[in-house]
């Protein structure tokens, strides 16, 4: 019941925000804050072992073996935390924007929250797919209704890309369902299947396509920079902060455990693509003048590292991937918030037109710096522990892969510091002289984000502890399955 | 059986009402009568009815389900017709009567147990439709539609009849039971006449459901007919066509699947691509719906390609979803036609600002037609795809997925026009009758999409 409350309370809040037109943003904020505190209470009750807790299981489409089955375990708990923590922050960050028809806007954000939470908690293939699409529809409308000039064309591309990937995934899910002896969509039954190597290869490729488009991994990323640039800030934050984790989470929960032999066959190629993406996106990020595009490409690079960690498939790399998903969500939210502040004040995204902001807005400069340090993974910030574990895991898999993937730390520092330098230092020009420092709401958002970055950076152990047992168990189960077929 | 009698008697009563100039009574009496017919149909559910009239018809659960669907859709469409026929001509009662007669034909089509009844049912329905397509007597395109439909339809009926005759020539009976035992008793010694009969009947039936390459009449007829008749043809008539089609192939020809399946497989793929790709290039919403109805015929053919226990159910849920969404689309189109006189995509510009509710309902209907989860359209596609996958038609499903993606382009075009294009007109008045129809269809679309067990538990 606890979980059901968390899953569907956002929908209730969405309705309240829709009806309560004059106070839609207040109701959305208060409602999402309640969801967050409830989630925090849930996590406090969570036993850090490998079991599934707070399980809900109701028959949904009995004739097709479809159940509403969802639960919390070490794999998804951090993502539930991330979702429910970021949504109130995103709503707060949108406070200053004068969106037309705000009640619809906040209702869509909250509707998407339910979709995302379903994706992260689903233990039934059909439910997972429904959540996957239920998260896509609202973000399409958010980006297309409140986005920039090219929003219609760009969002159509985004929508068609993702729908195509997810429909291919649906074929794979239905295929698995038809192979289960009792005809069920239960994930446990999918795990227990013994399919031939060829079948698993195809299943792997079908799932991989959907997840690779969502993350996105090179060369499936072409929708991403345009969509991030054209989307309203809240849309970009939702997409980059939470939604892309659907892809990385899907790889851990569905892709590799369901088709371990497919993973043996194709996993190394997936790893290679992920690493190419890291280098490629970093180089492009270095050449960008548009702040939003720069952050978009940096996000491709960082997610590439997470993906590389997942496809290395060992305890360290998975632990790193899970905690880095949380960290990346926080950091990229912070970065887009910084970009939003600059764009809202100066009406430009071009780095060449900026400069010297630090002198006029010292508080903003400090906030930006903390977020930046988290992103470039400086020790004692949150990014460090994640990237360290990821690289350690990739290193165990292959030293050369780790060497190339490790470039992300250097390249990331280069393009991020270049951005900071161009925007904040140097002489002020006419535009940036008028830059006003942070107001109360903005300060409080930076305080929360900064505190998270530093606290997780200094003492990540409680978070790692939550997922430790579940990750170890998952890796062992999958490896045992691979071994049993190989010998 | 009572359903058929009720509808036929109702049609005559309405005709007499017209004679006595009781125009205000026409719609209430028709709707009331149809509700009685619907109740009669539903009472037959799970009665395990045996064939009646010397094996002419069998009102089994399959027939109950499809006639209930056809009657309910007709009720919704007739609710939209208030004040519609009056604008066209004086003879309003006749139109109601003709629609009711065609509905009677449909009830026969979904419950036949004898090939002669299949033929009679199809003819009762078709002849009524030839008239209905041309009720705008002074409109050139309406006349064209009627003539085209009549000529092509007569031709295809010829094929159907010829096929029936050849089958009779090898089996010496029209009875489905006899044909079934002929096929299943000695599947190796089937006369070539019988095979030719199957192919000819296939042509006739594919024409009726508007599958490629027998689809050329569809866009012109749908486009030229009055919008309310188009709504009727693309929902009720199409569903009935598929119900009749599936009943024959499921009941009689299933053992010969290796013979006819490759043909239908290819036709399905061609239908999907022809419908979707042509729909992409349309400027008129009505014509887009005509082509999209061809592509939906392709999806419904999945049930026949992957014939199995779930086929009837699959067609039912798909037809339910498709009818609900299409009725919304045509209802909106009728409202906008009233205002602008045009049926192009441009008339939808800025509808979200003018009529937020109407735009929301139409968006849900478009998402349902595109097969997005949490709408009924997704459940329909899901059932079809899983049927096909269960018989390992993986490439067919992959091609269907490509088509589903193409479909998104033109369905979203409407949404884009409604939400993102500038407003250039005033608010559209939505009469109460339309609101009822829109709300009922919306409720069906969302309820079946969110909790399909409402329908699935009936199996």
UniProtKB/TrEMBL annotation, chain A:
Its subcellular locations are:
Endomembrane system; Membrane
Q: Which residues are listed as membrane-spanning? A: 27-44, 74-92, 104-123, 129-146, 158-178, 202-223, 235-256, 268-287, 294-315, 321-343, 364-385, 397-417, 444-464
GO BP annotations, alphabetical order: ATP synthesis coupled electron transport; electron transport coupled proton transport
- This protein's major location comes to membrane
Highest taxon listed in the record's lineage: Bacteria
Key words of the record:
Membrane, NAD, Oxidoreductase, Translocase, Transmembrane, Transmembrane helix
Query: Could you tell me which residue ranges the NADH:ubiquinone oxidoreductase chain 4 N-terminal domain spans?
Result: 14-118
In its UniProt record, a GO molecular function of this protein is:
NADH dehydrogenase activity
Q: What is its EC number?
A: 1.6.5.-
Where does the NADH:quinone oxidoreductase/Mrp antiporter transmembrane domain start and stop, copy by copy? 124-408
Which Pfam families does the record associate with it?
Oxidored_q5_N (PF01059), Proton_antipo_M (PF00361)
| Cellular component per GO, a single term | membrane
* Catalytic class of the enzyme: oxidoreductase
Entry's PANTHER family? Answer: NADH-UBIQUINONE OXIDOREDUCTASE CHAIN 4 (PTHR43507)
Query: Record's family?
Result: Belongs to the complex I subunit 4 family.
Recorded protein name is NADH-quinone oxidoreductase subunit M
UniProtKB/TrEMBL annotation, chain B:
Would I find Cell membrane among this entry's keywords? yes
Record membrane topology:
Multi-pass membrane protein
What residue stretches are annotated with the NADH:quinone oxidoreductase/Mrp antiporter transmembrane domain? Answer: 114-407
Annotated GO molecular function terms are: NADH dehydrogenase (quinone) (non-electrogenic) activity; NADH dehydrogenase (ubiquinone) activity; quinone binding
Give the EC number.
Answer: 7.1.1.-
Under catalytic activity, the entry for this protein gives: a quinone + NADH + 5 H(+)(in) = a quinol + NAD(+) + 4 H(+)(out)
Which subcellular locations apply to this protein?
A: Cell membrane; Endomembrane system; Membrane
Uppermost EC category: translocase
Task: Name the keywords, alphabetized.
Answer: Cell membrane, Membrane, NAD, Quinone, Translocase, Transmembrane, Transmembrane helix, Transport
InterPro entries to which the protein is assigned, alphabetical = NADH-Q_OxRdtase_suN/2, ND/Mrp_TM
Q: Which GO terms describe its biological process?
A: ATP synthesis coupled electron transport
- Annotated TM spans: 62-80, 92-112, 118-135, 147-174, 194-217, 229-253, 259-281, 288-309, 315-336, 357-380, 392-412, 432-454
Domain of life of the organism encoding this protein: Bacteria
- GO cellular component annotations, sorted alphabetically? endomembrane system; plasma membrane
Known role:
NDH-1 shuttles electrons from NADH, via FMN and iron-sulfur (Fe-S) centers, to quinones in the respiratory chain. The immediate electron acceptor for the enzyme in this species is believed to be a menaquinone. Couples the redox reaction to proton translocation (for every two electrons transferred, four hydrogen ions are translocated across the cytoplasmic membrane), and thus conserves the redox energy in a proton gradient.
Query: Which family does the entry's similarity section mention?
Result: Belongs to the complex I subunit 2 family.
| Quaternary structure note | NDH-1 is composed of 14 different subunits. Subunits NuoA, H, J, K, L, M, N constitute the membrane sector of the complex.
Name of the protein described by the UniProt record? NADH-quinone oxidoreductase subunit N
Q: What is the lineage of its organism?
A: Bacteria, Pseudomonadati, Bacteroidota, Sphingobacteriia, Sphingobacteriales
């Amino acid at each position: 019941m606890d979980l059901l409350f968390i899953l569907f309370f956002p929908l209730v809040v969405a309705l309240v925000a829709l009806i309560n037109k004059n106070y839609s943003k207040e109701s959305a904020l208060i409602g999402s804050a309640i969801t967050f505190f409830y989630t925090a209470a849930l996590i406090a009750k969570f036993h850090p072992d490998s079991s599934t807790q707070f399980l809900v299981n109701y028959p949904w489409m009995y004739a097709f073996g479809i159940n509403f089955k969802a639960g919390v375990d070490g794999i998804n708990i951090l993502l539930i935390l991330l979702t429910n923590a970021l949504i109130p922050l995103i709503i707060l960050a949108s406070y200053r924007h004068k969106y037309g028809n705000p009640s619809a806007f906040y209702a869509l954000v909250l509707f998407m929250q339910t979709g995302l939470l379903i994706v992260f908690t689903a233990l039934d293939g059909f439910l997972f797919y429904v959540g996957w699409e239920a998260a896509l529809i609202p973000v399409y409308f958010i980006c297309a209704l409140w986005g920039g000039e090219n929003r219609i064309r760009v969002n159509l591309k985004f929508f068609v890309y993702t729908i195509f990937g997810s429909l291919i995934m649906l074929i794979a899910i239905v295929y698995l369902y038809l192979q289960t002896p009792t005809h069920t969509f239960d994930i446990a039954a999918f795990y227990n299947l013994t399919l031939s190597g060829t079948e698993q290869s195809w299943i792997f490729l079908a799932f991989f396509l959907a997840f690779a488009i969502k993350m996105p991994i090179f060369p499936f990323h072409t929708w991403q920079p345009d969509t991030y640039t054209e989307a309203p800030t809240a849309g970009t934050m939702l997409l980059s902060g939470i939604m892309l984790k659907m892809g990385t989470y899907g790889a851990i929960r569905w892709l590799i455990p369901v088709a371990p032999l497919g993973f043996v066959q194709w996993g190394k190629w997936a790893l290679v693509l992920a690493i190419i993406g890291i280098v490629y996106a970093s180089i492009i990020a270095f050449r960008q003048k548009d702040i939003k595009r720069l952050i978009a490409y940096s996000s491709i690079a960082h997610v590439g590292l997470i993906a590389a960690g997942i496809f290395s498939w060992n305890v360290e790399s998975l632990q790193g991937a899970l905690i880095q998903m949380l960290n990346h969500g926080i950091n990229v939210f912070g970065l887009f918030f910084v970009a939003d502040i600059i764009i809202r004040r100066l009406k430009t995204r071009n780095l060449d037109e900026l400069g010297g902001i630090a002198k006029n807005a010292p508080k903003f400069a400090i906030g930006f710096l903390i977020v930046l340090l988290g992103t470039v993974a400086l020790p004692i910030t949150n990014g460090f522990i994640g990237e360290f574990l990821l690289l350690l895991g990739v290193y165990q898999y292959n030293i050369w892969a780790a060497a190339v993937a490790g470039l992300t730390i250097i390249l990331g520092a280069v393009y991020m510091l270049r951005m900071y330098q161009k925007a904040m230092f140097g002489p002020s020009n006419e535009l940036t002289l008028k830059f006003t420092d942070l107001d109360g709401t903005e300060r409080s958002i930076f305080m929360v984000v900064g505190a998270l970055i530093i606290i997780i950076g200094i003492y990540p152990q409680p978070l790692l502890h939550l997922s430790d047992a579940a990750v170890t168990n998952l890796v062992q189960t999958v490896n045992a399955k691979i071994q049993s077929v190989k010998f | 059986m009572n359903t058929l009698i009720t509808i036929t008697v109702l049609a005559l009563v309405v005709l007499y009402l017209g004679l006595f100039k009781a125009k205000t009574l026409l719609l209430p009496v028709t709707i009331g009568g149809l509700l009685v017919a619907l109740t009669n149909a539903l009472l037959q559910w799970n009665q395990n009815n045996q064939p009646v009239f010397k094996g002419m018809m069998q009102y089994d659960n399959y027939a109950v389900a499809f006639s209930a669907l056809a009657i309910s859709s007709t009720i919704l469409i007739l609710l939209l017709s208030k004040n519609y026929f009056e604008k066209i001509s004086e003879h309003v009662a006749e139109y109601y009567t003709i629609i009711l007669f065609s509905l009677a034909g449909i009830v026969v089509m979904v419950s036949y147990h004898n090939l002669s009844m299949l033929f009679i049912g199809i003819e009762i329905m078709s002849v009524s439709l030839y008239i209905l397509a041309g009720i705008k007597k002074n409109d050139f395109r309406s006349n064209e539609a009627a003539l085209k439909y009549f000529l092509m339809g007569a031709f295809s009926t010829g094929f159907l009849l010829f096929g029936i005759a050849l089958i009779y020539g090898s089996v010496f009976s029209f009875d489905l039971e006899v044909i079934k035992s002929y096929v299943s008793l000695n599947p190796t010694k089937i006369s070539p006449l019988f095979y030719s009969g199957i192919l000819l009947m296939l042509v006739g039936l594919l024409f009726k459901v508007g599958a490629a390459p027998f689809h050329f009449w569809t866009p012109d007829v749908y486009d030229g007919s009055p919008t309310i008749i188009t709504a009727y043809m693309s929902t009720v008539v199409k569903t009935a066509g598929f119900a009749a089609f599936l009943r024959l192939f499921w009941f009689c020809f299933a053992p010969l699947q290796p013979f006819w399946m490759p043909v239908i497989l290819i036709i399905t793929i061609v239908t999907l691509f022809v419908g979707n790709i042509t729909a992409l290039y349309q400027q008129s919403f009505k014509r887009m719906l005509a082509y999209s109805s061809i592509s939906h015929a392709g999806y419904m053919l999945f049930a026949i390609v992957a014939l199995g226990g779930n086929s009837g159910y699959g067609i039912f849920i798909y037809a339910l979803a498709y009818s609900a969404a299409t009725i919304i689309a045509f209802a909106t189109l009728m409202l906008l036609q009233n205002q602008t006189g045009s049926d192009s995509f441009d008339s939808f510009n800025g509808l979200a600002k003018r009529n937020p509710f109407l735009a929301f309902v139409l968006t849900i209907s478009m998402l349902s037609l595109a097969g997005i989860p949490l709408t009924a359209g997704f459940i329909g596609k899901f059932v079809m795809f899983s049927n096909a996958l269960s018989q390992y038609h993986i490439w067919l499903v992959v091609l269907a997925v490509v088509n589903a993606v193409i479909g998104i382009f033109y369905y979203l075009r409407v949404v884009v026009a409604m939400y993102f294009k500038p407003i250039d007109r005033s608010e559209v008045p939505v009469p109460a009758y339309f609101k009822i129809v829109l709300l009922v269809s919306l409720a069906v679309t969302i309820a079946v999409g969110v909790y399909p067990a409402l329908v699935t538990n009936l199996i």
